[in-house]
């Protein structure tokens, strides 16, 4: 029903904005659904057409709707700019299902992974395979001695581990953080979650790299944030685009993954890092620097210093052990101003009484073991070999057909295919061919591009990946001819 309730003190145009947003949230208006014409809406609401135009302008600025010349106004089908909720109340998440369930492609990928069939090639899971996790022994402690370590823990985590992270960050990057500026989290994911819940409010605009791993996370939408795409070139995010986004949408925070970006594998250049921290400091936009691959980067002298090193006040730095010790370790850390750390640590304390002492003690012990550096070195070597095998296989089996940039590190190769897929269902062809890859749409891009994760691929697997892609390209071009 296109009717205003009439019991609001808001200006009429904002009541129209609210009504349309509510219809989208309730599912009454679906992505890509066309809105009635302006004249008709004005009649429904009993207002001037200019009031409707003002409301639609506001919704367009929020990227909730898209106005297309000649074809009217439609509900934005993408997550970019989506306004996804009014409340940050926990109960709301639980009862209203604030978290969006995985898209069918991801659900199907999960089913195929779990089936663990010999036939299926997993080039999608961004997790460290078991054989590449550390082979070092963990200390054998009695239950009581674990619990006793709690004396060394406060809301921000186990102090010896915070000191270890402090030393590690200093040795690797010359980063000078004090232990009270370091917060141990349950992986990078929890740090991101707490930032979106505690430092931002529903309706706030945030800019994230496009493409981005963040796009695949429902936590931004669940916090009711409007996410805007920050385009990148080979050097990283484009600064003029950030300025535009800031002026158009009052961006409140920028999220970047500057080293071995997921999914592109790109490393933001030093020049771009400097420009980014400078412009963000000037516009007073805090930066979240998500850096789960940092330890691998530390072995590579070509990797520029973290943003945190360039501007210690305005950057929240996130690290993680997931990519070097296995993601079920669930140890990450956030480095930021003491006041922010205290606020987030208290929020976590309210949510789940803090972090378990067990992984913190074990991680601290392993990080201080002599074999740890050796483990990193081996990991670095194996990943480089696997990356080179994949690239060699693609170049040999599909010469000059694919476009990709050789990543300096990380887990992923971002591959542009020489075909056009008209809808996201077209990507099901990979699943039908028993090849699990991550399609570009999961990272917020429309092009026919896939993320191929080489971390798990042996040499033969890489050749098979190349052969399957070749087969898919043949099938696709045959379909076009039909
Ligand atoms: C860029 C990026 N950030 C954060 C995460 C989440 O890491 P964690 O396992 O530490 O929560 C991932 C995991 O793949 C990632 O790729």
TrEMBL record:
**GO molecular function terms noted in the UniProt entry:** DNA binding; DNA-binding transcription factor activity; pyridoxal phosphate binding; transaminase activity
**Signal sequence coordinates:** none
Q: Which family does it belong to?
A: In the C-terminal section; belongs to the class-I pyridoxal-phosphate-dependent aminotransferase family.
What is the phylogenetic placement of the source species in the record?
Bacteria, Bacillati, Bacillota, Bacilli, Bacillales
HTH gntR-type domain spans which residues?
Answer: 10-78
**Database matches in PANTHER family:** HTH-TYPE TRANSCRIPTIONAL REGULATORY PROTEIN GABR (PTHR46577), TRANSCRIPTIONAL REGULATORY PROTEIN (PTHR46577:SF2)
One Pfam family in the UniProt entry? Aminotran_1_2
The Swiss-Prot or TrEMBL record lists the needed cofactor(s) as: pyridoxal 5'-phosphate
Known InterPro entries for this protein?
Aminotransferase_I/II_large, HTH_trans_reg/aminotransferase, PyrdxlP-dep_Trfase, PyrdxlP-dep_Trfase_major, PyrdxlP-dep_Trfase_small, Tscrpt_reg_HTH_GntR, WH-like_DNA-bd_sf, WH_DNA-bd_sf
Designated name of the protein: PLP-dependent aminotransferase family protein
**Protein species of origin:** Listeria farberi
UniProt-listed Gene3D superfamilies: Aspartate Aminotransferase, domain 1, Type I PLP-dependent aspartate aminotransferase-like (Major domain), Winged helix-like DNA-binding domain superfamily/Winged helix DNA-binding domain
